[in-house]
């Protein structure tokens, strides 16, 4: 067991790869073969009061109703949130009125991508409305068991680009490092549904992590490491410090990113101890997984503020989901809310064709039309890049509305603006590889701009 990261429920120091005789000393955990890290391990002193969020009225009411023995300090403790996650049919039925479809799906479930919802996130779910966006993203339905044409378990072909377990090397200069299979909340459309929450929710071999570090050390072309999972921020501070410290000790790793939904589903995870530790590893960026503006509670906005105050640039990742966020108002409201929370909208993803996800997937044209509806109508910073992650390892391919109309007979470029007007631009030199404009449209000349 001592060579395995095995976080049970909840993740704990006790059985982890990085666990030590002392709860806070990680000095002995540094693999002997590793070059010396330039940053000393952290010493964590938890301060529950300093990390408290003010309980919203809704949270306080939810806490009183469903966890009457717990205190506000418990609620604000991310470990308490983990220990009290909603995981069973019985747990869920205490909190929401399940439909027959939801109930049958939960009963039928086996293996990876179990039900897992923090009490905090459960407090945001509509207990009666089965079509509420947030509810649909975390409570399974029977459609999950229907595999449609083109769907499979590993649509991005990550397993075929994995030189060592837990490391995906798909692009020339960057890698994806999967440090855990655990998430405190499981999204029903997860691209890694095949692995998250499996094997006691998290099981990563120490030897795999070491092999990943070794691989990165040996490949000097790798300048960017994205730490993901599962959710890396579900690791406790000591384990995360260990990963970051070892990566930062590799001279050619210029840039480290963390992908996480933790600030959204468990904002109390963003403690002062965590941000103090993270600040030691700049340049460190974060991609936060948001789905809907309902997630932007005062607690989540405060958590994003704590990360931003620690100097961490924040970008968002959002999966386009049918009936959840696929209309202009919902998407624009989310993007505006992200800007106010100091998060730059980064990627809007077409929902990957994982098995059983057809009920979430929109046509690609929906994403394009959403971008078209936002571009020019709102702040440019609010507009994410819409991408399709191409099946079988093709990588992210941006798809944008086509604003280029072609060239006119005088060689001027015809561009369509956000409001439908067509403008001439006196382009010169090499032409864009597009067809000649087939007909003259009413255009607005460059001189008139
Ligand atoms: S948080 Fe990310 S890794 Fe975890 S279930 Fe959701 S999409 Fe998957």
TrEMBL record:
Cofactor(s) essential for the protein: [4Fe-4S] cluster; pyridoxal 5'-phosphate
UniProt keyword annotation of Iron present: yes
Keyword flag Metal-binding: yes
PROSITE patterns associated with the record: RADICAL_SAM
GO terms for MF: 4 iron, 4 sulfur cluster binding; L-lysine 2,3-aminomutase activity; metal ion binding
Enzyme class: isomerase
CDD domains: Radical_SAM
Binding residues annotated for [4Fe-4S] cluster, in chain numbering: 183, 187, 190
Enzyme Commission code: 5.4.3.2
Domain Radical SAM core: 169-387
Residues with the N6-(pyridoxal phosphate)lysine modification: 396
Gene3D superfamilies: 6.10.140.1170, Aldolase class I
InterPro entries named in the record: Aldolase_TIM, LAM_C_dom, Lys_aminomutase/Glu_NH3_mut, Lysine_aminomutase, rSAM, rSAM_sf
Annotated keywords: 4Fe-4S, Iron, Iron-sulfur, Isomerase, Metal-binding, Pyridoxal phosphate, S-adenosyl-L-methionine
Catalytic activity: L-lysine = (3S)-3,6-diaminohexanoate
Family (UniProt): Belongs to the radical SAM superfamily. KamA family.
UniProt name for this protein: L-lysine 2,3-aminomutase
Classification lineage: Bacteria, Pseudomonadati, Pseudomonadota, Gammaproteobacteria, Cellvibrionales
């Amino acid at each position: 067991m001592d060579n395995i990261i095995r976080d049970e429920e909840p993740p704990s120091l006790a059985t982890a790869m990085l666990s030590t005789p002392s709860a806070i000393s990680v000095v002995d955990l540094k693999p002997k073969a590793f070059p010396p890290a330039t940053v000393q391990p952290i010493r964590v002193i938890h301060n529950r009061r300093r990390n408290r969020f003010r309980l919203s009225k809704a949270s306080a009411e939810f806490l009183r109703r469903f966890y009457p023995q717990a205190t506000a300090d418990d609620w604000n403790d991310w470990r308490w949130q983990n220990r009290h996650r909603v995981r069973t049919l019985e747990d869920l039925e205490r909190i929401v009125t399940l439909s027959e479809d939801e109930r049958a799906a939960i009963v039928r479930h086996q293996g990876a991508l179990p039900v897992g919802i923090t009490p905090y996130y459960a407090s945001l779910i509509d207990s009666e409305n089965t079509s509420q966006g947030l509810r649909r993203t975390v409570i399974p339905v029977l459609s999950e068991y229907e595999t449609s044409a083109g769907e499979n378990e590993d649509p991005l072909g990550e397993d075929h680009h994995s030189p060592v377990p837990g490391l995906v090397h798909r692009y020339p200069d960057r890698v994806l490092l999967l440090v855990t299979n655990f998430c405190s909340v499981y999204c029903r459309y997860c691209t890694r549904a095949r692995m998250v929450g499996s094997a006691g929710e998290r099981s990563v071999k120490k030897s795999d992590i070491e092999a990943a570090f070794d691989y990165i050390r040996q490949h000097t072309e790798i300048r960017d490491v994205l730490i993901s999972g599962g959710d890396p921020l579900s690791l406790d501070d000591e384990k995360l410090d260990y990963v970051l410290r070892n990566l930062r000790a590799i001279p050619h790793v210029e840039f480290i990113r963390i992908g996480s939904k933790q600030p959204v589903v468990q904002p109390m995870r963003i403690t002062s101890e965590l941000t103090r530790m993270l600040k030691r590893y700049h340049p460190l960026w974060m991609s936060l997984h948001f789905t809907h503006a309902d997630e932007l509670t005062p607690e989540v906005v405060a958590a994003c503020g704590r990360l931003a105050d620690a100097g961490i640039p924040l970008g968002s990742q959002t999966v386009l989901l049918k009936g959840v966020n696929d209309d202009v108002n919902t998407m624009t409201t989310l993007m505006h809310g992200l800007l106010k929370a100091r998060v730059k909208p980064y990627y809007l993803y077409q929902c990957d064709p994982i098995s059983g996800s057809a009920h979430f997937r929109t046509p690609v044209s929906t994403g394009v039309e959403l971008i078209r509806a936002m571009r020019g109508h709102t702040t440019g910073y609010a507009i994410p890049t819409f991408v399709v992650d191409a099946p079988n390892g093709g990588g992210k391919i941006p798809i944008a509305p086509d604003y280029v109309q072609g060239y006119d007979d005088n060689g001027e470029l015809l561009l369509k603006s956000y409001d439908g007007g067509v403008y001439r631009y006196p382009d010169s030199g090499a032409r864009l590889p597009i067809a000649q404009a087939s007909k003259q449209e009413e255009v607005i000349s460059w001189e008139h701009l």
